[in-house]
Amino acid sequence: MKINLLTYLVKSHLLKVITKFIHSNSKFKNFFYLYLHKYNTSHPRTKLLVKNILAGLFIKGGVVICTLLLVPLTIDFVDVKQYGIWLTLSSIIGWASLFDVGLGHGLRNKFAEAIALNELERAKHYVSSAYFTLAIIIILLSLIYKILEPFINWAVILAAPQDTAYNLSIVASIVVYTFLFQLLLKLINSLLMASQLNAIASFISLISNLFSLVFIFIAKKTLTGNLVILSFIYSIVPTIVLLFYNIYFFNTIYKKFKPKFSYVRISDIKSLFGLGSLFFIIQIAVIIQFQTANILIAHWFSAEDVAVYNICYKYFSIISMSFSLIIAPYWSAFTEAYSKNEITWIKKVINKTIKLWLLFSFVGFILLILSPIGFRIWIGSRIEIPYCLSFLMLIYVLLLCFGSIFVMFINGIGKINVQTISSLISPLIFIILAYLFIKILSFGLSGIVLAIIISNFYGPIIAPIQYLKFIKR
Known about the structure:
Elements: H1 2-10, H2 13-24, H3 26-35, H4 44-77, H5 80-93, H6 103-116, H7 120-148, H8 154-157, H9 165-185, H10 187-194, H11 198-222, H12 227-250, H13 266-300, H14 303-327, H15 330-339, H16 343-369, H17 371-379, H18 387-413, H19 417-440, H20 445-455, H21 458-471
């Protein structure tokens, strides 16, 4: 079943069309094969990775373009201040992603392991148990928010004018309920990534971005900009797209794994929670370190500064998004390879990816040098981005990419105890350093990025050491 499933997906119209385009262009083909995967492609797992990376790079290019276009379009639809408020609200709602309690990552590892060992019945139980458990959690959370909603003043939380409280309450309700529903629907991405088919998961994201871009453009031309309309577009559109693909995949390639109540087992829920709980703790650290930044900036600076910080991040995230696309399929590939004790293959992939990271670093510094021109072309004179902020953001992104090489391996084999302990320490370090750099040393926005760099010590420092120890057994 494993071979049939993966073969079907690899030969699907999406991958077939994109890989055909790339193979027809010798420059594309030679570049990607030379710099990305210049190793033995006779291994079925490697072939699958190459196909997904090539297709994924093509798709991710579309995602990046949509993301870049959405920023100035959104700012023109509302304004810089409202855009900053929207970013801060999105960061707070992002905390809700914690409430999947790591089930998505747990399902990804367990499903990949079961498929690798051809234990299809166990895979069915994992899928149904994950969907059922997360559905119960989301229903409970929705009821809790409904009860607490009248007592929440979003204007105070977002440091916004009090006369916007009513509209912000409507915006928050739209975002909260759709976001919670999306948590359940996003489990389909866990299955796709477990099957080492990240390109198809990226395609879902591309479709969501394309529709959002189209609707924002139409709204800008026909309606008066406000946060209610903005939240509706950004929330409802991805939800509908995810719902469509859940229905589609569970009636085609994942038909045998369609969630059924009869397949739910307490033992599998415990198994998913066992690994998922550790990922849950790690998710908390990620949320505190990265989502809290917007909240701190909103309260210590202004909503406009939230926009400055995020636009700078989005510019350099071109590097991290492109790099993550390449290494994302490795997670489940490492799960399979480590289960089969194929250590040589793992070492070969890691070494090649480190060389690729050096190439991305070179590109990153070119982007830094050209950043004043890049920002001017992208957002015009709407916002000024300090050069020091750009430099630190580049350093952060490059360190994040380097660490992610080894974190993918650690996550793939499920040995995340040290990562979990580190994740409990890093948020505390981040908050202390952010206060020190901003309130005491007056580093400004750069202080936030510097605090994130220092507190994010696990990926670039500890994870490589762990990798060497595990690879030597």
